[in-house]
Write a structure and sequence with these properties.
Elements lengths: L6 H11 L12 E5 L4 H17 L4 E6 L2 H7 L9 E5 L8 H4 L5 E4 L6 H6 L1 H21 L4 E4 L1 E2 L29 H19 L4 E6 L1 E3 L10 H10 L4 E3 L6 E6 H14 L5 E4 L5 E3 H12 L3 E3 L4 H6 L5 E2 L4 H4 L9 H13 L2
């Protein structure tokens, strides 16, 4: 799919790329990102490419992914350029000589299994990417003496709400039963954050950790099996929205443009060693209300269906998970897309490509 020709998507990129941020910090620098074709990574690269094209930022981008051709296709390129290099690298494997020969000023580890079907069908890969893949990226950043490292963590580190708070602040820790297959994702994110702290101490690496809420947007992958992604796909096709539970789960969400600007605020302004929640109260919603909103927008209905065992195994057990983003807002960040705007925008963009 070619998002880059869609006018609404280009507006989103321009909006993020023209925020009043200290972009000069990236001028003449090299930014390396894992998960380059993923939901968040691809949008962020689009923003950096825009800065290079429109403002002459001269920021070199090194995009890591498991398929070099998929990277070129996603960004409309025939091959590498002076300011863009694609490297085929599974971050869980030993880093290839091509990557090791590069230098980077900023390293962002954005690669991760992030949806239920991956959790249930590839639980080993889910854990390894958040620990071994992260270690490989941390080693690279430390060896290259990078100025800053970003580890994209998750709302899932908070576990289940114990009923003692309305929203998760960064110092909250809820309950996770670690002796389950589904625990692989949140527990490995927790372990990954601890690993970042270890590298700060032993390797003197500067690390900031954005904790993303459930993120959605037009740059999502076709294989994404998160509930919101499935709802959006049905909406794009003008089909009935399939709800596979009573839908009472209450979560925080972020439109991808807001998630990426949150990551940028962490990159530019975050305090080393700190974690920052990325979420907005205007995007807190139950699954059933989200399904209803999409169905009403596209003129279909919500229907209920029992999930199969494989699907159910990957579902989060948390029934209430809302993030407190006050800490990130002290850095100057704010969300610009509430739930209604983000959902309708995503559907409208995906319908045209």
């Amino acid at each position: 799919m070619n998002l880059l020709i869609n006018e609404l998507y280009k507006e989103d990129i321009k909006h993020a790329a023209t925020l009043d941020l200290p972009w000069e910090k990236l001028s003449g620098k090299t930014v390396l990102l894992s998960g380059a074709t993923g939901l968040v990574g691809s949008f962020l690269i689009d923003v950096l490419n825009y800065r290079n094209a429109e403002f002459g930022s001269n920021t070199k981008i090194i995009a890591l992914g498991r398929s070099r051709q998929r990277i070129y296709d996603r960004f409309g390129l025939q091959g590498d350029t002076d300011l863009f290099k694609a490297i085929e690298q599974d971050v869980n494997d030993d880093l290839c000589p091509e990557l090791l020969s590069q230098n980077a000023d900023y390293v962002l580890h954005l690669a991760s299994n992030t949806h239920p079907l991956q959790y249930s069908t590839d639980p080993i890969g889910t854990i390894i990417t958040n620990i071994i893949g992260l270690r490989n990226m941390l080693d690279f950043a430390a060896d290259k003496k990078a100025e800053r490292f970003i580890f994209a963590s998750s709302v899932e580190v908070y576990g289940e709400n114990r009923g003692d708070t309305e929203r998760f602040a960064e110092d909250y820790l809820g309950y996770i039963d670690c002796n389950t297959m589904r625990a692989g994702y949140p527990e490995s994110k927790r372990a990954g954050e601890a690993l970042c702290q270890a590298y700060m101490k032993q390797r003197e690496l500067d690390v900031v950790i954005p904790r993303l809420s459930r993120t959605y947007g037009p740059s999502m992958l076709k294989t994404d099996t998160k509930a919101i992604s499935q709802f959006i796909k049905k909406g794009v096709d003008k089909e009935n929205i399939v709800l596979k539970s009573e839908g009472n789960q209450l979560y925080s969400y972020s439109y991808v443009a807001d998630a990426v600007t949150g990551v940028l605020y962490c990159l530019f302004y975050g305090k080393s060693g700190e974690a920052y929640n990325i979420a907005d109260p205007d995007s807190d919603i139950t699954l059933k209300d989200m399904a209803k909103a999409i169905a009403e927008y596209v003129g279909t209905e919500v229907i209920f269906e029992i999930p199969d065992a494989t699907e159910a195994a990957g579902y989060s057990k948390a029934t209430k998970a809302m993030l407190d983003s006050a800490k990130l807002k002290t850095l100057g960040w704010k969300a610009d897309y509430d739930m209604k705007r983000g959902l309708t925008r995503t559907i409208d963009i995906l319908r045209t490509i």
